[in-house]
Amino acid sequence: MQPSLYLGIEISGGRQPFTYVALDSELHLHAVGRAGLDELLAFTSGLHTALAALNAPSRLSLRRFQAGDQSSAAARKGGLRLAEQQLQLPGLNLPRIPTSEDEGPLWMRRGFLLYRRLEEIGYQPFPADDAPLQWLETQAEAAYWVLLDRVPLPAGSFESRLQRQLVCYDLHLPVSDPMDFFEEITRFRIRHGTLPLEHILTGAELNAMIAAYAAWVVIKQPEKAYWLGTPEEGEIVLPEKPRQEIDTTSTERPSQE
């Protein structure tokens, strides 16, 4: 079933830790916001057909690579999930996924909770036949890496927001051209601290935007979608295949046309 909306969700700290972006099939912006868990679930439960991409791990690590297996590069790196082991791009720092939810940071625990709550309201892991509501896992930092073909500027900096918004703009996503920001910079604005920051999305919004795009690619351009990991330990999908050679192969998934 073709979703009517493609939802990207970023998870962080604070009282409203969930930032979401919803795009329609033509990549037009349907909704953007920041919400608490109950507000987000109220929004997602009201959708008729949707594919939600979460920038958070969906499964705990099974520690497939045991410390005693010295022949495995994965063992030397401390037992990451298979998806993260496969995605060893130069300079890309990925979160370590624990074997117990209690061991994870707050944002990660919130992610595990969100997956469970989404399934309680009818969302199923992609691909799920003709289920109208489905979810999948993506990795925003890795998505920007492959789209840039280089390590993104450090997340959280203003320069990184400009860089990532430029990526989104070049993909024809519903963002303004970040270069317009510089056209509005004047001596007066700098002296008075009135820079036109409203034109540049926050880091959380940009991560949610690229997550929504990854969901859109899975359905609309499935030949570009790049899958890593295993269903039992969590699969990550990226909106494009890395140009650099990495230790994995793409896994085909049905487009659900």
Compact summary:
The protein is an alpha/beta fold and 257 residues long.
Q: How many E strands?
A: 8
Beta strand %: 15-25%
Structural class: alpha/beta
- How many domains? The number is 1
Helical percentage: 25-40%
Lateral arrangement of strands in the main beta sheet: 3-2-1-4-6-5
Order of helices and strands: EEEHEHHHEEHHHHHEE
Mean pLDDT: 86
Query: Biggest β-sheet: count, sense, barrel?
Result: 6 strands, mixed
Number of helices: 9
What gap, in angstroms, lies between the N and C termini?
6 Å
Gross geometry: globular
Description:
With 257 residues, this protein is α/β, with parallel strands linked by helices. It has one domain (5-238). It has helices spanning 37-45, 73-76, 82-86, 106-120, 140-148, 158-170, 180-183, 187-192, 203-220; strands at residues 5-11, 18-24, 29-35, 50-54, 124-125, 133-137, 226-230, 234-238. The strands form 2 sheets. Strands 3-2-1-4-6-5 form a 6-stranded mixed beta sheet. The protein has a two-stranded antiparallel ribbon with strand order 7-8. A hairpin with a 3-residue loop joins β7 and β8 (234-238). The relative contact order is 0.19. Mean pLDDT is 86; it is low at 65-77 and 249-257.
Provide tags for this entry.
six-stranded mixed beta sheet; alpha/beta; 257 residues; 32% helix; 17% strand; disordered C terminus
